[in-house]
Amino acid sequence: MHKQKDRKISAAVIALGIVAVIAVTAAATAVTYARFGGFGTGECADTEEFSKYAVAVSDITVPDGAQIIALGEATHGNREFQQLRLDVFRVLSEKYGVRAFALEGDFGGCEAIDRYIHGGDGTAAEALSATGFAIYRTDEMESLAEWMRSYNASAAEGEDIRFYGFDMEQHAYSYRYLLEELKKADIDTSGFEKIWDGEKNAYSDLYTSAERAETIRAIMEKLPANESKARHYADVLLQNIELGKYINDVGELNEQRDRMMAENTLWIAELEQARGNSRIMISGHNNHIMQCPNSGTPVLGSLLAERLGSGYFAIGTDFYKSVCNLPKPYTGERIAHTFYSRDPLAKASKKCGFDVSFLDLSIVPEDSPLAEHIANNIPMGSVGEAYSFLMNIIPRSYRVMRTPQNAYDAVIFVADATPITIEPISAGGRFDQTETLR
Q1: 194 occurs within a structural domain
Q2: Residue 30: how many CA atoms within 13 Å on its side-chain side?
Q3: Assigned domain for 173 exists
Q4: 421 contacts 138 by C-beta, under 8 angstroms
Q5: What is the pTM of this model?
Q6: Which CATH number do you get for residue 158?
Q7: What is residue 311's DSSP assignment?
Q8: How far is residue 237 from each of residues 32, 177, 259, measured CA to CA in Å?
Q9: Considering its fold, how many domains does the chain have in total?
Q10: What's the number of CA atoms in the CB half-sphere (13 Å) around residue 120?
Q11: What is the pLDDT of residues 287-301, one digit of tens each?
Q12: Which of 271, 366, 369, 412 has the greatest number of CB atoms lying within 10 Å of its CB?
């Protein structure tokens, strides 16, 4: 009787042990899946082949016919992608004579940066605060602005670097600088100033969006045809008002914004061509600069590629591992969150010993083992400017399936991307912009 009871107890203990092992294994599996966004860090492309074609960023080459060279970023919150702006621009300026840089930031705010790099008062931090975006208040962006300022200090006439923005999400600095231009041209600004609330540094609530747009159009008619910059300030203000119509339709808002960014980029390119410069560099998120539509929706890069053909050269970026600086929803509190892209090419780059590598997709032969990863959908990292709890359990919330050769002409791979450190808003840059979480 006792033996039978002992057997039952032993069986129960064994069963509980098995359940415990299963539970621990399941928990460990769940933790592993959450950490890597899958079971492990994914497939690795042929490292021997990768090492044949990958080079350092300092050895970047672009086609002679490239008019707009775009540098993407897989995330907004990593230092390495911001450092690449300077690294790539230096190569393009030294080897290809590029003298214009355009950022995914509003036109007016980036004018403040342009004034700074041309010897203007204040600091780089103050100028960068004018963009209104926290992600640009970093040491890496300050280094970019300081390098450009130093370059311009000794540049020959007509060889200076210019800094532009091709976005329209903010409006305050575009209003400010348009007002300056109007006064320089001795144009009556009384009606234009009425639509602005000086205390709030924003549009007056006494006027509707339609009335503001009508006032801006009336001002444009008074501007001489050769005042292209002043007219573009007005265009950007009208774009901002138009964009506001889609505030409750994110899909339409994003589509319209990309269309407007493409228009603004072409305007910048044409302005530079008139100055004798055949190439410009632009920089923005991969999802904007890629040369294929995003799930069927045209984006900045696809619109430029459609217009310019091979004259548009897109350099995407990706990471093997990213510890990314992101804002939480509602509070804006910033955290560092870890992601793995599971990109087989990024993994090969890391295994080859590259901290950062550049791969021109056009030089990889069709019979290379790398071709299967270049010509087919592969996972790639893609993180915007927002954190979600879903990122802990749904890999597609920070990863996309993308065909590299359809999206980019070349890709830069970062092995271990580290988080940006965001500096406080500089007082000199607080004129009017609202802190924006994108």
Answers
A1: no
A2: 8
A3: no
A4: yes
A5: 0.90
A6: 3.40.50
A7: G
A8: 48, 11, 15
A9: 1
A10: 18
A11: 999 999 999 999 999
A12: 412
